[in-house]
Amino acid sequence: MRPKKTRWIKCAPGERCFRPQCKPLKRLDGVCMGVDEFEAVRLSHLEGLTQEQVSKKMKVHRSTISRILDSAHRKIADALVNIKAIKIEGGCCKIVGKIKGRAG
Question: Does residue 102 come out as left (phi exceeding 0), alpha (psi in the -120 to 50 range) or beta?
């Protein structure tokens, strides 16, 4: 298997964990999203960029962005449908700056 190419992101999400409050912590499963998945979702859905634009910002091929978004969407759907926590961590990313208007 080929090593993953570094994905360039604007800002690390910090320590992020989202969990449903309707289920006791002891019985709560979770899914892990990579920082690259978080950034691709942010750029695509919050910033409204096309996959081509996202791929240029993250400095990877467009088909890689498609796979990253597909993986992120499956994890988000799994967490929402099956009442799971979402933790954002890890990945082969390089931080290039901060998101405009965000403290940190």
Answer: beta
Percent of residues, the chain, with pLDDT higher than 70: 71
What residues are paired with 32 via a beta bridge? Answer: 87
pTM for the predicted model, two decimal places: 0.74
- Give the structural domain span for 75: 34-97
84, 31 contact by CB (below 8 A): yes
- Confidence band, pLDDT 50/70/90 cuts, at residue 73: very high
Higher model confidence: residue 82 or residue 101? 82
The CATH number that applies at residue 88 is: 1.10.10
Residue 38: partners with Cβ closer than 8 Å, 6 or more residues away:
13, 16, 72, 88
Domain annotation covers residue 59: yes
